[in-house]
Structure formats: structure tokens, C-alpha cells
């Protein structure tokens, strides 16, 4: 999963869970059934898990472009321009070398 | 969100947090329900009224209990426990409570009922204070919600009197 995919997965998870909670509470309160609320919410959690937990292809549409080894040898010290090219993901950049 | 385990953990913890929030809101929504229960009890017969060998008075009654507790039920109510207590005053104690009958109401459909019953539990006084005693019959109930705090209330019915003599 690439950086954009991780951000998308987190946002999807939060929006889907809150959305299902609102729907479940609304329906449960309207028809007066606590059980129905829990069932709808459980279904929502299951669906959210299926959508956001596996590493689906649409989370991998923005692969990182690493420099060629030859290019890296030519510039032994990372240049500031290389850093800024990926700097918009600075929030999670501490893990960048794991992927 | 970089690994399968991390995402699974995030979904689980966030889902449980939201579950706690909706349960809290469900509990709060109970406050919008205004309950107006009614109850009426008649003592249709004093079956027996004796002094036990140990000196305690004991009474057997036939009770006619009718109650409508449907308004106590909301979508967040699991069950209602209801019991009928005889309450009276003696010289030693300002309040004596003797439970005569109880029941569990599992659903709103059963919350309106009329039953004729003898007292399920002994109406015994610790002493011999019951002859000619004025007493109240109080219908207590405890509402047990699915989530949230239990609540209790009661209806006091006055003007009952035991006979002056054993029979």
C-alpha cells in the first residue's frame, strides 16, 4: 500500500464507520429496535473491514519512484531537491524506508 | 496504516469507540420518555391470619393486581422487575416492608396485566403487630435498560387494613 493509499484507507475507515453508526442509530431509534441498530452497525463494521483492511489494488495507484542505483551513486549524498519531491507525505515519512 | 495488522487494529478500536458512543446516546435518549404508569391493587380476601408458635403474625391474602407499566418501556429497555410490598409502621420501626409478590416483565406487550394471586411470599411481621394494622401496598419497579443506568420508582396505594382478630 502506497502513501496515498494509506491516507485513503484511513479516511475511508473513519467516514464509513461514522456513517454506518449514524444510519444504524437513526433506523434503530425510528423503528424502536436496539437489536436492529446493532445488526446494522455490525454489518457496517464488517463491510468497512473488508474495504479498508486488505491491500486492494486501488490503494496502490501511486507507487513511489525510487532513483536508479546508478543515479544514486552519482549523488552519494541525497540532494534537497530529491527530498522535496516526496515531501508532501512528510507526516508519515518516518516509515518511508519500510516500504 | 502501512500493514494489514495495523489497519485491522485501527478498524477494531475505532469501531468499538463508536459503539460506546452510540450506546451512550441510546442511554441518553431514554430521558425523552415520560413514563406515566398506573397500578391498582385490591385485597379480595384475607385467607388466614394467625399467630405463629414463635409469636410472629402471619397473613395469607388474595390480591387482585392490575397495572399498566407500558410507558416504562423504551427501545432501550431490557426488562422491568416489579414487586408489591406491604408497608406499615410499628412502634419499633417507622417503616416495615414485606414483599408479597414480584415478577419480571420481559417485554412491553406483557406490561399491562391483571392478575389474581395469593401472596407469593409470607406476609409475616416480626412480632404481633398486625391486628387491626393500617398498611400501604406499594408497587415498586426497577427498570433495567440495555445500556445505561438502572432506575427505580414506585406507586404507593393507601387505605388497607387488617382484621382485628386472628382467623
TrEMBL record, chain A:
Belongs to the SPCS1 family. GO terms for cellular component: signal peptidase complex. One of its GO terms (biological process) is protein targeting to ER. This is Signal peptidase complex subunit 1. Residues 73-99 are annotated as: Disordered. It is found in: Endoplasmic reticulum membrane. Component of the signal peptidase complex (SPC) which catalyzes the cleavage of N-terminal signal sequences from nascent proteins as they are translocated into the lumen of the endoplasmic reticulum. Dispensable for SPC enzymatic activity.
TrEMBL record, chain B:
One of its GO terms (cellular component) is signal peptidase complex. It comes from Aquilegia coerulea. This is Signal peptidase complex subunit 3. One of its GO terms (biological process) is protein targeting to ER. Pfam families: SPC22. PANTHER family: MICROSOMAL SIGNAL PEPTIDASE 23 KD SUBUNIT SPC22/23, SIGNAL PEPTIDASE COMPLEX SUBUNIT 3. The keyword Membrane applies. Essential component of the signal peptidase complex (SPC) which catalyzes the cleavage of N-terminal signal sequences from nascent proteins as they are translocated into the lumen of the endoplasmic reticulum. Essential for the SPC catalytic activity, possibly by stabilizing and positioning the active center of the complex close to the lumenal surface. It comes from the Eukaryota. Keywords: Endoplasmic reticulum, Membrane, Signal-anchor, Transmembrane, Transmembrane helix. It is found in: Endoplasmic reticulum membrane. It is a single-pass type II membrane protein. Belongs to the SPCS3 family.
Amino acid at each position: 500500500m502506497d502513501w496515498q493509499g494509506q491516507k485513503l484507507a484511513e479516511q475511508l475507515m473513519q467516514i464509513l464507520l461514522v456513517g454506518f453508526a449514524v444510519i444504524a442509530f437513526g433506523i434503530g431509534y425510528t423503528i424502536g429496535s436496539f437489536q436492529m441498530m446493532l445488526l446494522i452497525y455490525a454489518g457496517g463494521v464488517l463491510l468497512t473491514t473488508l474495504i479498508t483492511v486488505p491491500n486492494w489494488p486501488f490503494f496502490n495507484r501511486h507507487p513511489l519512484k525510487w532513483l536508479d542505483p546508478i543515479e544514486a551513486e552519482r549523488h552519494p549524498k541525497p540532494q534537497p531537491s530529491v527530498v522535496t519531491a516526496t515531501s508532501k507525505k512528510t507526516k508519515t515519512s518516518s516509515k518511508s524506508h519500510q516500504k | 496504516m502501512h500493514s494489514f495488522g495495523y489497519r485491522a487494529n485501527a478498524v477494531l478500536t475505532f469501531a468499538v469507540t463508536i459503539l460506546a458512543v452510540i450506546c451512550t446516546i441510546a442511554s441518553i435518549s431514554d430521558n425523552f420518555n415520560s413514563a406515566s404508569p398506573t397500578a391498582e391493587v385490591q385485597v379480595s380476601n384475607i385467607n388466614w391470619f394467625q399467630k405463629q408458635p414463635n409469636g410472629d403474625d402471619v397473613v395469607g391474602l388474595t390480591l387482585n393486581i392490575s397495572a399498566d407499566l407500558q410507558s416504562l418501556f423504551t427501545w432501550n429497555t431490557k426488562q422491568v422487575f416489579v414487586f408489591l410490598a406491604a408497608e406499615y409502621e410499628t412502634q419499633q420501626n417507622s417503616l416495615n416492608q414485606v414483599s408479597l409478590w414480584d415478577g419480571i416483565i420481559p417485554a412491553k406487550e406483557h406490561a399491562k396485566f391483571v392478575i389474581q394471586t395469593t401472596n407469593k411470599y409470607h406476609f409475616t411481621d416480626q412480632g404481633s403487630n398486625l391486628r387491626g394494622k393500617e398498611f400501604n401496598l406499594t408497587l415498586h419497579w426497577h427498570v433495567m435498560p440495555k445500556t445505561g443506568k438502572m432506575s427505580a420508582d414506585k406507586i404507593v396505594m393507601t387505605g388497607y387494613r387488617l382484621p382485628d382478630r386472628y382467623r
